[in-house]
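Hi R.,

Here are the chain sequences for the assembly we discussed:
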Amino acid sequence: MALLFTVLLAVSAAILGYFVIDFGRRDFLKETKAAINNEVSILTILKNGQETLIPYFKRRIKEDPDIRFRYEDKSGKFIGGTIDPKPKHVQKITEEVLGYELDTSNGKQVFAGKTHIFEDDSQIIVFRNVHNLIKSNERLKHLTWVIILLMFLVVLVSFGISHFVVSRINRIGAIAQNIVETGDLSQRLSIDSRWDDLSNLSEILNGFLGKIEDLMNGVREVSNNIAHDLRTPLSGLRSDIEALKGCIVNDYKIESLLSDVDRILSLFHALLRITNIEKGKYSQFMREVDLEKIVKDIADLYEPVAEEKDLSFEIQTSPGTKVKGDGDLLSQLFANIIDNAIKFCPKGSVIRVYAGTEKNQIVTFIEDQGPGIPDQEKENVFKHFYRGDASRSTPGNGLGLSLVRAVAERHQARVTLENASPGLRVKVSFQPYQ
Amino acid sequence: MAKSMKILIIEDDSKIRAYVEKGLKEAGHVVDLAEEGETGLHLASTEKYDVLIIDRMLPKLDGLSIIKTLRGSGNLTGVMILSSLGDVDDRVTGLRSGGDDYLIKPFAFIELLARVEAIGKRASFPQFAQSTLLRAGDMEMDLLSRKVRRGGKYIDLQAREFRLLEYLMKFKGQLVTRTMLLEGVWDYHFDPQTSVIDVHISRLRKKLGDTNNNLIMTVRGAGYIIEDSF
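And here is the predicted structure of the full complex:
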């Protein structure tokens, strides 16, 4: 393809060059010859009419500074005109037309001259100044060469570019093909420069690949975790069922098996919910909701639970906490955080719940007086199934904070874990409703 | 136990169909079956049922279209939608198409039974929804003045406690599951990890002087019931 393009360009350059040269030469010859022939035929008519030619010469020379005459008898003796002595020709232009160099007011210039012999054997030489014609013809020739040279350069450059572009596209295609065949998403397109559109495209495609890889890794991680986390309860279930072989099954045993299954199902359900939230399936339920009300309602829901542990809520809210969101999801977010706070709070302590504005953001936090989370574990607690040392002995599935983060991200909110010394402050910062 | 109802199950999964049929019959109900949408719609529009249990995804005619067709022809039979689509928006589209309740597979049978009976009750006693005075044994609940009396003594309940008791009383004689309470009283559609509902119930019992759990009885692994005989 690249080659074809280059060849076409080269051929058109050659045609253009030939055409220009050819046209220039013929034109130059024709004009001069025609002008001289014209002069000669007028002179022949005058001569045949028995008129003297001298006044005509004078008139013509006055009229046209580019013309010269030399009239001589058959022995070559000068009779009239302006050129004497007879000059020697310096070049041959065509068969009949010869080139001479004659003096002019601008120094020596080239004239084309044609000798005509009349019937009485006297002869006339008609000269015509072709200096400018030759000059412009030469200029044209030079210009043509420059054009041909430029076109040749264009041919070279275009060949280079097309070769470069095509080979880059082929390389991108090859890598894409390789990714399709091997399924290896860690491959990236090479970017050798930054200035052209192809590099731009490569960068976008690399970003695309990166995003897919992240998603795939996420899916792989989750499925590994599921496989890992479900193996324990599933193998427990299996051995329990196996143990029932040959036994008389009673309701108690069935209940215990069912609760095993229910636990596995609820784990699946929780994971599915997180995945759905992460992929944004809930967006159609985003509307104006008031965080103050949501937080208060959830605290109200958990208040008797807290009371059982001799805990109390200290709720502080201020108005203007409206955000765009899904009320049910946000309720679950705060339910999970408050549920955690109740789990880890020592008996008799206070859980502080806050919803208000801070700078340009709407900030909520829930603060307990429990053991807190060590700094090095703070990122880990958001991972699916992660359970810190402090939480291993408490009930839960290790998905509570994963869901909190998923819901927060769905709402473009940020979850941060801060030390409340003593205790943990879970802060969620939202963008205000517009 | 609630009175016997005539129930139609439209479900293509033979395992679930048999399982639900067996359970409902044991609970004393009369059950008809349909395996796909067209037969189901035909039965539902020609016979008189108390409750229809309709799977959302069915061969020939899907569940939501059946419900829309029935509602369009003025049939107001109570409908329970079964679905493995468990997202909030799936639930909302299900209920918008005319379903009375929505249950996500897999489900515990007792949850299905409690909800189906609740739908049946709502449909068969439309006047009970307007009734403003609820009674159970020596307890009286006035929905207008928002007062509760037990044994002639007024009991001071918080708004949330009042609504919880009201819900249980409205479905007197029927099992009410924890998720039903969470949805009906709090309007939450998620499952809190801790047994928050149990704690609310025990607090309500304390206020009502229900020390031996005679008034609000616990059904193990399922929910609560205020017995009819009370």
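The longest strand of chain A covers residues 107-117. Residues 192 and 199 of chain A are 7 Å apart (CA to CA).

Let me know if anything looks off.

Best,
T.
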